[in-house]
Specification:
Radius of gyration: 15 Å
Number of domains: 1
Mean pLDDT: 93
Structural class: alpha+beta
Low-confidence stretches: none
Strand content: 35-45%
Shape: globular
CATH topology: 2,3-Dihydroxybiphenyl 1,2-Dioxygenase, domain 1
CATH superfamily: 2,3-Dihydroxybiphenyl 1,2-Dioxygenase, domain 1
Pfam family, one: Glyoxalase
InterPro entries: Glyas_Bleomycin-R_OHBP_Dase, Glyas_Fos-R_dOase_dom, VOC_core
Protein name: VOC domain-containing protein
Largest sheet: 9 strands, mixed
Strand order of the largest sheet: 6-7-8-5-1-4-3-2-9
Order of helices and strands: EHEEEEHEEEE
Helix content: 10-25%
Organism: Candidatus Lucifugimonas marina
CATH architecture: Roll
């Protein structure tokens, strides 16, 4: 198993509209939204070299900043099995397809508490088109 690239970076923000406006200036475009508009997916519009950011409006008890790093893998289920075989990594749940994003995901924490996700787009997802 190896990381094939970065799938997305998930960031918790205090003001969603200000953050969307900020990232638009870097060429990012809203791609879709979930959670009644409190989560917005942004991307650079380039299918050959995609960059994706997921912005979450801060909820009580959440710390601002990066929530998790999501890495693209061939198959999150196989990747998790391989890592579990090697030992020393505890996963938060069995891999599953997140219906909103259409990604099959598997999450764990690195030694310093950074949440690491392995993901693969496995369906179109149900999040709403932005515009």
């Amino acid at each position: 198993m190896k990381f094939l690239g970065v799938d997305h970076i998930d960031i918790i923000v205090s003001d969603l509209e200000k953050s969307i406006d900020y990232y638009r200036k870097f060429g990012m475009h809203p791609e879709g939204t979930v959670d009644n508009g409190e989560t917005v997916f942004l991307w650079n519009g380039d299918d050959d070299n995609p960059v994706r950011i997921e912005l979450h409006k801060q909820q009580d008890g959440q710390t601002l900043g990066i929530d998790h790093l999501s890495f693209l893998v061939d198959d999150p289920t196989d990747a998790q099995k391989e890592i579990e075989f090697l030992g020393g990594v505890e996963f938060l749940f069995e891999p599953f397809e997140n219906q909103q994003s259409g990604r099959t995901i598997s999450n764990s924490y690195d030694p310093d508490g950074v949440q690491i996700q392995m993901a693969r787009q496995t369906s179109p997802g149900t999040y709403k088109n932005w515009e």
